[in-house]
Amino acid sequence: MKLTVRSLGCAVAFAALLVTPAGAQDVKAGDLVIKQAWSRATPGGAKIAGGYLTIANKGAAADRLIGGSADVAGKLEIHEMTMNNGVMTMRPLAKGLVIEPGNTAKLAPGGYHLMLMDLKGPLKQGDKLPVTLEFEKAGKVKVAFDVQGVGAKGPGADEGHSGGHDSHSGAKK
Which end of the chain is less enclosed by CB atoms within 10 A, N or C? Predict the structure, then answer.
């Protein structure tokens, strides 16, 4: 009887592993940890898409996200959205985005984000979008972005917020 109970416990534990949802994998690059990389699905004919992620700097020196590339886009830029006199403005960060030591930069809707421009095709929900990010110190880093639904607010969309309010923490232009 003990063997049967133990076998049942092992089977339940194994089944739990099989149903664990697969999300974007954390990526380590030097002192940086990149996680929760995602984008939104785009309608056919769309030429731009946003990319969002969190970058934690576990080291003692700052690093800077300076650019990147994606096969699905002609160009990738780092952008900032801000509110000026009641008007939301967006602009590219020509010098990139600094991630200070010990801090975390959250690229999210309404704040810092990546712009994938000149899309060669639509992004489809459920796809993994390969992107190469480029940092001053950590170099080129390959990251897979999870493509969420068109109106998604993030990989944890059930949390009910976009994270845009704290998107400037730990990073500077």
Answer: N
What residues are paired with 26 via a beta bridge?
none
Backbone φ and ψ of 8, nearest 5°: -65, -40
* DSSP helix, strand, coil percent of the chain (3-state; round to 5): 15, 45, 40
Cα(114)–Cα(66) distance, rounded to whole angstroms?
11
CATH of domain 23-155+162-172: 2.60.40.1890
Two tokens, residue 78 = 């780092």
31 touches 63 (CB < 8 A): yes
- What is the 3 state secondary structure string of 16-69? HHHHCCCCCCCEEECCEEEEEEEEECCCCCCCEEEEEEEEEECCCCCEEEEEEE
Lowest mean pLDDT among 43-47, 50-54, 165-169: 165-169
Residue 150's CB is within 10 A of a number of other CB atoms, namely 12
Domain ranges of the chain: 23-155+162-172
